[in-house]
Design a protein that fits this description.
Layout: H1 3-35, E1 39-42, H2 59-68, E2 75-78, E3 86-89, E4 104-106, E5 128-131, E6 142-144, E7 150-152, E8 155-157, E9 162-166, E10 186-188, E11 191-192, E12 207-212, E13 218-220, E14 229-230, E15 236-241, E16 249-251, E17 254-255, E18 270-274, E19 282-283, E20 289-292, E21 296-300, E22 312-315, E23 322-324, E24 356-363, E25 366-373, E26 382-393, E27 406-417, E28 424-431, E29 438-445, E30 457-458, E31 460-461, H3 464-467, H4 470-473
Parallel strand pairs: 1-2, 2-4, 3-5, 4-7, 5-8, 6-9, 7-10, 8-11, 9-12, 10-13, 11-14, 12-15, 13-16, 14-17, 15-18, 16-19, 17-20, 18-21, 20-22, 21-23, 24-31
Antiparallel strand pairs: 24-25, 25-28, 26-27, 26-29, 29-30
């Protein structure tokens, strides 16, 4: 082999060796960072400031130390001596904002605390209370200014502003330039506005949770342990505002009730408000939210669209269960919005028309709901996809356009605009309807915008037994 060829092969081997060494070094560095993922353990209920978290460590000190840590995913845990609830009273100034991505604050690490295990109700034992009764007039509980933050196992009470701010509400002054969003953050297993017993009201004056311009946030979840109870707050339970909240999911929570899900601890205005430009949020899902005893269940204000609100149990709110506003109405809504011909109006969730029901017939445990929907008019005969969600109610809401006490399910329908400017009929079958129910529905368009609730329709009994062939054998 010529010498020149040998030199080239040797050089190639040296390069590969260097690359391999660099890759190995990178892996080792990553492993070292993961191993270094520090845990800062709170051992005191005092509110003392400081840059380090030592043997005696306050929550304020732990936040400061975690923000400064170089680890990839630091954690704040709790091991405060003594039994029972440990109130951490915030005094004077706001707590440090959360600036470190991938930080987890876990109140369930306090000895004796346990997560909820109930499908119905909430038996979580929360022993860490973050309380703002002595804080200043501009303070909130926690402000998340970094991505992938997880907050769990806390009772957050009596702050003059919000219990939780996810993203910077001013988009400049609180989080600072370049750190203003909290994308992909997770809020699970907390009581916001209730004391740790899950029963006693201790609301935050301006509202429970504010989500601002941060996409893909999850509030609650499909597991029992994920359930938040967000109640008794002075304004809205959850306030979603501004663009870039797409992909956010709010599910499995109790909003406006106590931890049992049955007693009135309503938020003063709405359970959830989707404020101007809030788009692409999913409220409810495989595990519906229970939204009750608020002034209004859900409000969608002008210029918000694509918000899927169908899969929820909504009842006993003072006004509407779902209120789509033609303007920026705030948490108090603007009342029932009448359907319009060909659904040409605009506002919250595009003021999606609600179904007009003609019958609701129960055969055994299946209900067949028939009705019509006034759909947008197009130049030709065009297929338009919707889903019709069906709800069972004990009584009809006083407005006549009922709420949706028990979400039974939803079914897809395809409606054809036939160029005649007429309403399009549909028929859906849903299992699980309880006897004697009052039925309501919503419509959700292909873009994810859900309507207000339809007017009520009393369920009648069908001849299901004969339809199954028993008549012929008699």
């Amino acid at each position: 082999m010529p010498k020149q060829t040998i030199d080239i092969v040797a050089a190639s081997r040296q390069i590969c060796s260097a690359l391999n060494n660099a890759a190995i070094a990178a892996i080792l560095l990553t492993a070292a960072n993961l191993a270094h993922a520090a845990t800062f353990t709170v051992t005191s209920t005092a509110d003392t400031a400081g840059a380090t978290c030592g043997a005696t460590c306050t929550f304020r000190q732990a936040l400061t130390a975690a923000n400064a840590d170089v680890a990839a995913a630091p954690k704040i845990a709790f091991n405060i001596p003594g039994t029972g609830v440990h109130p951490i009273s915030v005094v004077g100034s706001s707590l440090p904002t959360i600036d470190h991505a991938n930080l987890t604050i876990d109140g369930y690490t306090q000895p004796g605390a346990t997560v909820n295990t109930l499908a119905e109700g909430d038996n979580a034992v929360i022993l860490i209370q973050l309380d703002g009764v002595g804080a200043g007039s501009s303070t909130s509980g926690l402000t998340l200014c970094a991505a992938s933050t997880t907050i769990k196992g806390l009772s957050i009470t009596r702050f003059v502003q919000r219990g939780l701010k996810i993203g910077d509400p001013s988009l400049s002054s609180v989080c600072g330039s370049g750190t203003r969003t909290a994308d992909d953050s997770i809020i699970v297993g907390n009581f916001v506005g209730l004391k740790p017993d899950g029963m006693t009201s201790a609301g935050n004056s301006f509202g429970g949770v504010l989500l601002n311009s941060s996409p893909n946030v999850r509030i609650g979840g499909s597991a029992a342990a994920d359930r938040n109870v967000i109640s008794a707050n002075g304004a809205d339970g959850i306030d979603v505002v501004n663009p870039n909240v797409t992909g956010t999911a709010i599910l499995g929570n109790y909003i406006g009730t106590d931890k049992s899900g049955t007693l009135d601890r309503g938020n003063n205005t709405s359970g959830i408000i989707l404020a101007i430009n809030s788009n692409g949020v999913t409220v409810g899902g495989a595990v519906p939210n229970r939204i009750a005893f608020n002034n209004i269940g859900i409000v969608a204000t002008a210029a918000s669209a694509g918000n899927d609100l169908a899969a929820n149990d909504i009842f006993a709110n003072n006004a509407l269960g779902i209120d789509l506003c033609g303007a920026n109405c705030g948490g108090n809504g603007d009342g029932t919005t009448a359907n319009d011909l060909n659904d040409t109006d605009s506002g919250g969730n595009n003021l999606q028309n609600f179904p007009s029901l003609t019958s609701a017939v129960r055969s055994y445990t299946t209900i067949t709901v028939q009705g019509s929907l006034d759909v947008p008019h197009t130049a030709g005969i065009t297929a338009q996809s919707f889903s019709i969600a069906v709800y069972a109610n004990t009584t009809c809401d006083s407005t006549g356009n009922g709420e949706g006490e028990i979400y039974l399910g939803r079914a897809p329908v395809v409606l054809f605009d036939n160029n005649a400017l007429t309403m399009q009929t549909f028929s859906v079958n849903i299992d699980g309807a309880p006897a004697g129910a009052i039925i309501t529905t919503t419509a959700t368009d292909a873009g994810g915008s859900t309507s207000e609730f339809s007017a009520c329709k009393s369920m009648t009994l069908g001849d299901g037994i004969f339809k199954n062939g028993f008549e012929a054998s008699m």
